[in-house]
Amino acid sequence: MDLEDIAHALGATVIRETPSGRRWGSYCHHTRTIRLHPDLVALQRDYVLAHELGHHYYGHTGCDPRWEWEADVYAATMLIKRDEWSRATRIHERVEAVAVELSVLPKVVRIYYTHPKEARNVRQQEGYAGYYSRCE
């Protein structure tokens, strides 16, 4: 699954330039543009892109703690497949080891682990589930 292809298919443009402030990324609803810091390593880039895609998907237009949470859950769902999660958590007990196994940041593992019901609900929402299954 290539997240930039998904972004394009969902109508978002991804550019690599330093976002304002000290952020790794940002999303502008009016221009449908996702900005990714150019110095991010692959795991950071994937998380930030998936997170900003969450803002795009939900149509977030500003900064709200609830929206940040929704974007985080969306990102965790994009980056972790249920069968891979089951296998990784049977093999490993530590968050860091699961993260390495799944090639995601430890933060993503914590989000998915802490709120699996929300992560499943994101997948089941109309539109998202159908598109996601075509990308796996």
Automatic annotation (TrEMBL):
**Alphabetized InterPro entries for the sequence:** IrrE_HExxH (IPR010359)
UniProt xrefs under Gene3D superfamilies: Metalloproteases ('zincins'), catalytic domain (3.30.2010.10)
Which Pfam families does its entry note? Peptidase_M78 (PF06114)
Which positions fall inside the IrrE N-terminal-like domain? 25-109
Q: Which domain of life is it from?
A: Bacteria
Spell out the protein name for this chain: Uncharacterized protein DUF955
In its UniProt entry, the species of origin is given as Nesterenkonia sandarakina
